[in-house]
Amino acid sequence: MAMLDWNDIRVFLALFRGRSVRSAAAELGMSHSTVSRHLTELETSLGAVLFTRSRDGMLATAMAEQIFAKAEKVEGEVHGFQREAASLDTVLSGQVRVTSPPLMSQYMIMPLIAAFSQKYPGIEILLHSSFEIDDLMKGASDVAFRSQFSPNDNLVGRRLPDFVDRAYAAPDYISEHWFEGDQTNATWIGRGVHDLSNNWVKQGPFPNAGVRHQIPDMLDQAQAAVSGLGMVSLPCFFADALDGLVRIPGTGPVSSRPGWVLTHPDLRSSVRVKTFVRFLVAEITKREKQINGELG
Fold it and tell me: In the CATH scheme, what is the code of domain 6-86?
């Protein structure tokens, strides 16, 4: 049997998980033809067909099902090797791969990365906006910024200030509606696919308010509120800085989530990763009142 190529195994795993050549190509940054070539080479090496094509996509054969767990083990060992190699750096140069939710990336992390880059010109930042914490576990990222209650126990976490959400609307929208205690004739802008049950409404300052329109993306929600479509619940660090939005009078925090900077344990000795994390933690902590809404 010919020696297996790691890229062939990567393609196999991406096809097994995504069930299509298109999704595998997008995940791996390869062309469709390259994905197909690696699959052909792997099947030739193994002397077996691993996938069959159908209307439902690429269907794994019995052979593919049998070797998937072994391929995942190889993936874990490769990523472990890569993390260990990255942790051995002794100079402040090279890459730091960062993942952060889009809103946090654009309205908080980006200017801090610019300041870090000026101070440490030898370090290159690769920033990927994503909500997926698996980026760290799979070795696709070195550092993850998140606001969540329970980070993965297998990761090393540094606490950030609590991220607070409050209720906002356009000034004209507020003046055109009445607000009495927890009652109002104003309506919330819905969050769409994120929470079709709208349980978040019951936990907010106006639990009986209606929901009109469904807009999943927070940037779009903010612009919809600026345009007068309704009320929104948004992070203070973002919404307080927007022109055309103000806090709804008489309302307090709607929700609060702990902030975290997370890294993989294998990278705890990486000088450049530790330097980046320390710098960002210090700078974000300086903005605690902005994050928890005390400046508004």
Answer: 1.10.10.10
